[in-house]
Write a structure and sequence with these properties.
It is built from ten helices and no strands. The protein is an all-alpha fold. The N and C termini lie far apart (56 Å).
Length: 250
Amino acid sequence: MKKYFAELVGTFVLVFGGVGSAVLAGTHIGYMGVAFAFGLSLLAMVYTIGPISGCHINPAVTFGVFLTKKINGKDASMYVIAQIIGAVLAAGLILSIARGIPGGYDASVSGLGANGYGMHSPGLYNLQAAFLAEVILTAFLVLTVLGSTDIKAPVGFAGVAIGLVLTLIHLVGIPITNTSVNPARSIGPAVFVGGWAIQQLWLFIVAPLIGAAIAAGIYAVIRTPDEVITTRQAERSLGSQQEERGKRKA
């Protein structure tokens, strides 16, 4: 249960840090500030809960990892449930804080950082543009996660790569959809906004999952296979090492 709870906590931090920055400080920090808030939140969580759960904190990432057979179905399902709970809790607390301003805060009117297209896109981008952007940007994220966490990748740098790519993704995607690339991140605010946010939520579930599948497929093609050492090769290697030691002693 520790890794499931870690995913809940990590997703809570990501949503509270990212969506919270947009809702509570967006007018002060702008799109760039929000993009870095998401990236820094993820970077911090990679090093905090990565050793416990792998720090997916995103159903699309979990789906991509599942497709590459690095996680089983039971764990994948429990990860997704934990991620959604964490996102909803974070969105609820953001709303509670936002209501503390003079005149209050109406989530259904102000949006609570929910993702949307058409009239609910910051740049009024249509459904087709939003769908394509979410697929491509999610593929960027999942491909980076798969590559930077591979056993052959440089040790200790995964968090930097993943945090930076999420920042990049938000710099591109915020004007289009407010940037999802994460179904849990979209579900959290949508629960409290209701109405249009629930009606458009399907896109921010389907598109990221398609993007994750594309990333898994790409990584399977470009990844070099692990070197398999046979018993005979291991014996030969051991024999060579012993022979070299013998020569050094002589």
